[in-house]
Amino acid sequence: MQHLTVHLAFVAILVGTQAFFTALSVLNVRHADRLVDRKTAWLDDVLGVDDPTELSDYHRLTTAFSELQSWVGLGVLLVVLYAGGLEWAVGLLASTGLSTVSQGILFFAGLVVAAQLFSLLFSIVSTFGIEEIFDFNQQTPSLFVRDTLLTLVISLGFTAVLGGAVLAAVNALPTLWPVAAWLLFVAFSLVMQILYPRVIAPLFNEFEPVDSGELREVVEDVFERAGFSTSDIYTMDASRRSSQLNAYFIGFGRTKRVVLFDTLVDSMAIPELQGVLAHELAHWKEAHIWKQFASSAVRMGIVFGLLGVLVDFGPLYTAFGIPETATYAGLLLAVLIVGPILQFTAPLTNKLSLKHEREADSFAADVMGPQPMVDALARLATENLANPFPHPWYATFHHSHPPIPERIRLLQERSDADEPATDLDGATPADD
């Protein structure tokens, strides 16, 4: 009876969570379609979207494809688990005579390879099908293969190091391993702030420092207005893979840098580019990286606490026919259960990120004036075919940035505080 209860709870958590988020996605698409139809004039006047049908088509297709991949992935996972795949893998590894830690490293490495193989077909269809249809894809098949293999090698390396360290902690500290694993996560996150921009990202893209020419003058102007000394601005050859626009801030101390996609530099007017740069500098000035890091550390501390409880829960092992000595398998099952909890706590994380993005927009408006940032946001939405009207419930769980219409409205209010704000944010009551 206890086994049945464990199985019912396990399936209910996984399937119920997926069903909930699929329902949100459907709600989001229907909501966006209605508002795109109602606000075609605003889309044209403010964002410059002269073909809202293309925007809606891209949103529908990418959403449907993402949901298809999620449901197929969940189905494959449940079939493997309930056909005895986990029990078979544990038995096979146990027959090698290796230590539990070594078995666990091989186990997680196998999962990485299996996940990569499963996602390969979907990645091919997404890259050379959907993204190609909407003129985003710039990637050649050879570059796609290179990226896939390089990602696999890097993933396997991190899996061996981190997975081995966690499993060693489980063996050495049966009751305190969650604390050790959490400290490892904190240390790894700090190291990645240095390692990613300096070592990993350059394996995929070329980064050129902005140190001369018109772009340098533009950058220096923004830094001077913002009260910073000019340094650590790079352009990235994102156009090798996609025509979409973006920029990001990463790192801390001497490793911090602002990265501008070359597609962004090539597509935006100088004032728009300066608005984006001022926005990214705000994340630096307001210590958003550290605040997000602290929030993530707290969240993961809770996660590891839950994992510690589940890894010690004997009925979970018995229900799937694996010995309690196979802690690596128990850790997998625990992660599958805790994963949905992370999804449902996303609004807490997103709330902090939304606050930071609004602060960054406000800083950009202070430095360059509101209009450059308004124009930049319009350009980003148009070029990337971003859905400007997410359903409020969907945005609560999925969006770390405020909807672009809301950001534009707030910036326009700063520009003319006496002018009544126009309802642009799409946050109308849902009809569903």
From TrEMBL:
> What's one Pfam family the UniProt record gives for this protein?
Peptidase_M48_N
Write down the species.
Halohasta litchfieldiae
Q: Which residues cross the membrane?
A: 6-29, 71-93, 105-128, 149-170, 176-196, 300-320, 326-348
Q: Recite the UniProt keywords alphabetically.
A: Hydrolase, Membrane, Metal-binding, Metalloprotease, Protease, Transmembrane, Transmembrane helix, Zinc
CAAX prenyl protease 1 N-terminal domain mapped to chain residues: 55-205
- Gene Ontology MF, one: metalloendopeptidase activity
Q: Which residues form the Peptidase M48 domain?
A: 212-414
Cofactor stoichiometry and binding? Binds 1 zinc ion per subunit.
Catalytic residue list = E280, D361 (proton donor)
Query: Which annotated residues bind Zn(2+)?
Result: H279, H283, E357
Q: Which cofactor does it need?
A: Zn(2+)
A GO biological process of this protein is:
CAAX-box protein processing
Q: Specify where the region named Disordered lies, as residue ranges.
A: 409-432
Return the CDD domains for the record: M48A_Zmpste24p_like
What is the protein name stated in its UniProt record?
Answer: STE24 endopeptidase
- Family recorded in the similarity comment: Belongs to the peptidase M48 family.
